[in-house]
Prior knowledge:
CATH class: Mainly Beta
Shape: globular
Strand order of the largest sheet: 5-4-8-9-1-2-3-7-6
Helix content: 10-25%
Structural class: alpha+beta
Number of helices: 2
Number of domains: 1
Largest sheet: 9 strands, antiparallel
Number of strands: 9
Radius of gyration: 15 Å
Amino acid sequence: MNPRKILAVMLVTTSLLGCTHSSSESVNLPLAGTHRNAGQVGRVTLTDVNSQTNLNVYITGVPTGSLLPPRIFTFINKGSCQQPGATAYALNDQVNTRSDAGTKGWSFYRTAPVPLATLLAGGYSIVLRSAPSDGDTDIFCGDIAAPTRN
Length: 150
């Protein structure tokens, strides 16, 4: 088995085990490609850690013609994807991504200076934007919502 695939499986397994055996709350959210990035999808795992929220993001692609590896700008906005509001948190100290060769996607990690409970309680969305050199366009969006309990 490819060493990268083994590492990816180990990371996913560790992540899942960490979520089930940890006191830190985690929420998985889907990200949808915008009209500029139609057909692409992604996901983000939000994890509460020490009054901050860690974001582990995976996306399947970026618009055709984007420079690779893509530089992705990440924002937490007030409002929803359908009714966006002002930027609440710009998470752009770093904008680099890493290739996930096993799935032909891209992943990256960011930290928001706000507890997850605040984000889950208050009508926020996550917006991923292409670099200025690639059009400075919103390419993914996902509404932050508390998971539904059955």
